[in-house]
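A quick aside before the break. I want you to see a complete sequence-to-structure record at least once, exactly as it would be stored in a machine-readable document. Don't worry about memorizing anything.
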Amino acid sequence: MPEVRVDPLTGLKTIVAAERAGRPGAGLRAEPGPPLDRESDPFAEGHEDRTPPEVFAVRPGDGPADTPGWTVRVVPNLYPALAPEPAEPPPLERDAQPDLFTTAPAYGAHEVIVNAPQSVTSLAALEPDQVAAAMEVWRERMRVHAPGASYTHLIVNERREAGASLPHTHAQLYALGFVPAAVARERERFGAYAVRTMGGNLLADLVQEEVRRRDRIVAIDDEAVAMAPFGSRLPYQLMIVPRQARAHFEDDGPTAAALLHDVLNRLGRRLGAPPPLNLWIRTAPRGADHFCWRIDVMPRLTHLAGLELGTGLHLNIVAPEQAAAELREA
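That is the input. The structure line, written in tokens, reads:
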């Protein structure tokens, strides 16, 4: 029977209807993406002149900026969604109906982190130590922007179906001057849980209970736990959580890089190829007294349709327990 599940972290509801997986055309597989042409790849090593000047890079050989020899490279986004705040902001023109039409300048930072010099389309195609090196740079750039931002949001989009405009594996970092509503909601739920339990950490307690039950656990290593969330919105959604609760991903400590590489390859083996996906890091926003960072992995195997877009209610045709069992075997 279909179930309505409430995600403990977000409060969002999902209908889990596994029986719908048997309807015509509902089989879930990922087809290999098109090959990446290195000659047209602006992020490939040797093509540094095709991007804006770098703002940071890891260069084992200590060569000059914007030359080959790097392992991870950071450049401003060529088409930024946020503008740097000027030294003297222009006066804000106020609308005659501010309650109806609210506006403010979109100040902040928007960077691209090229995860590796090779022309590959997925983090899963890199070696584990390369993923670890890329994630250390993610952390470093979040650390740079965190003092001046209300929230730093790091994402990885893989494949055009998941919004990637360039196929070469890369991350994007948004340093926002406000806390998005979805993140603020989670901050409130963490805080309310801490009050209700006299200091408990919502995500740490959730992971402890999931490990006890085992139904939705995919893998565990020395640093982190990977599981299919109880209220998974999409098939094969995954969440990676540090074994020791820490509020900020950008703080020192494990990054869960090895486990991330592991589960991405499990997805590829189960689905026939690395799927289109969105990945993001949820770190503590400004004003969070109680929080724990995590990595969310959202494969894009189904389409958002009228139910999801019109109500915010997701319909998941693969039960998280089934997804976890399949990925444990993959």
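Two observations worth writing down. The chain has a mean pLDDT of 94. Helices lie at 128-145, 181-196, 202-213, 257-271, 306-311, 320-329. We'll return to this after the break.
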